[in-house]
Amino acid sequence: MKTIVLLAVIxxxxxxxxxxxxxxxxxxxxxxxxxxxxxMGGGGEQVIPxxxxxxxxxxxxxxxxxxxxxxxxxxxxxxxxDGGGNQIRIMGGQDDISFHHFAEGRKxxxxxxxxxxxxxxxxxxxxxxxxxxxxxTVLNYACQQAVATRIGKRMEMSxxxxxxxxxxxxxxxxxxxxxxxxxPVPAGPELQGQLPGLIxxxxxxxxxxxxxxxxxxKVDASAIKEPRKGKKVTMxxxxxxxxxxxxxxxxxxxRMIRRGG
Length: 261
Known about the structure:
Blueprint: H1 2-18, E1 23-40, E2 44-60, E3 64-69, E4 80-81, E5 87-88, E6 90-91, E7 97-101, E8 106-113, E9 116-123, E10 130-138, E11 141-160, E12 163-180, E13 198-204, E14 208-216, E15 231-233, H2 235-250, E16 257-258
Parallel strand pairs: 1-11, 6-16, 9-15
Antiparallel strand pairs: 1-2, 1-14, 2-3, 3-7, 4-5, 7-8, 8-9, 10-11, 11-12, 12-13, 13-14
């Protein structure tokens, strides 16, 4: 009798989860940065790893999602001295917001960079996902594994004799996502609008990872709207302005680089 009751409770719980099409997720984001330092330790090269952890939240309905950073007092682990009395800070803007409209395949981002704010509108670029058949449980939700490869470019930073330099290098990243069909909404910390369920864990190579630490069905749906605070630009225009500002900062005695999350 106890076994029958337990099975009934599990069945009802699964049915309730399957009906959830809106809510709020809190993720722990861990970002890795490796900076090459030249001329240290007898003239050799050292690779200095930096790790930064913060929390973000994603609000979602079955049609759209909104991602934003949770205000916290965690120390900036990317703050680093460059050996010449200067300081380099790499961090995401506190007001960065990412809005995705699933049906329209469109995203709108509000990004802060060098004290300026921008509004960037773009289409959702989908990866070629493959289901592996692997499964596990995350926060009591049954999840399936999906993998993909993202091909792009990234900036590699190095420091030599107190001077920072950057160069663009090819960047191929293996993406591993764990999503739950119990919440059939294509939301997540990144790569929204691509998988048939809420992403609860995400690994993007060894650079960025996300892990859901809280899922709630309660959400203020009115907060899920397009951001409008900033200069309207395309992604290409934003990248050009960012590159220009970063080159100007490299030539100054003190430098601050803001990197969107």
